[in-house]
Amino acid sequence: AAPITLDRLRKVYPDGTVAVEELSLEIGSGEVTVLIGPSGCGKSTVLRMVNRLIEPSGGRILIDGSDATTADPNELRRTIGYVIQSVGLFPHQTVRANVGTVPRMLGWEKRRITERTDELLELVGLPAGQYAKRYPHELSGGQRQRVGFARALAADPRVLLMDEPFSAVDPINRGRLQDEFLRLREAVRKTTILVTHDLQEAIKLGDRIAVLSDHAQLQQYATPAELLAR
Ligand code: ADP
Ligand code: ADP
């Protein structure tokens, strides 16, 4: 795992929207930091900058001390696993192919990819013998989300970015999946930034919670216990 530093991070979109005014945050190695705040306050923008899907307008992002904004994209793919709300699985690829996406991009040998994907499917509770050859539409929403986790973990990233990972899952399965995440978390400690607008979820899953208001202004940065005591 690797610590992450957001140093006066700023994003103004081309149309002039100030999505992130100036955000500084220290995220400890192996910790889950939750970004919580109202819709439109800039949470996804922060994640997308860390993942380099968009360029910051100012400030720096340090992952384990090195500047992520100038890192080689392939290197970043190795470093970061990304989980999004709608999972974003490729519908015409099998579960195994989906999980192997990043290793394939990194040019791993086929045999190694299969070993790794099957190991991960086991880890997320979808044994390969039963699930590897299915297509996403042959899975429940919760199962698809697990495939999404497996895919994010495939190349053993040091950092995990999760954008509303449970919000597309029905409320009953959401609780189960959150428990699953906590269990997985014990097995694989990753520095994680998780975005949500659900306070319960933040308190359940976060080591630290960053409460944001419009333009990603940091209102509080505290542990769940500290937050509840206030
Ligand atoms: P959140 O994830 O907290 O809902 P976002 O980061 O998606 O917030 O959005 C932050 C602000 O930036 C919002 O006002 C949103 O409308 C705006 N925004 C997001 N993407 C773009 C874009 N590509 N161009 C212009 N404005 C954008
Ligand atoms: P959940 O209760 O987790 O939401 P579902 O009710 O959607 O799950 O599915 C129950 C079981 O049936 C799951 O193990 C799922 O993998 C399997 N299943 C769902 N859709 C299909 C399908 N189209 N083909 C094969 N198996 C399926």
Folded structure, characterized:
The chain is α/β, with parallel strands linked by helices and 230 residues long. It has helices at residues 43-50, 73-79, 95-99, 101-105, 110-123, 128-131, 141-153, 171-187, 199-205, 224-229; strands at residues 4-12, 18-27, 32-36, 58-63, 66-67, 80-84, 159-163, 191-196, 208-213, 217-222. The strands form 2 sheets. Strands 6-7-8-3-9-10 form a 6-stranded mixed beta sheet, with helices on both faces. Strands 2-1-4-5 form a 4-stranded antiparallel beta sheet, with helices on one face. It is globular and about 50 Å long. The two termini are 31 Å apart. 40% of the residues are buried. The chain binds adenosine-5'-diphosphate (2 copies). One adenosine-5'-diphosphate binds at residues 13, 15, 17, 19, 37, 39-45.
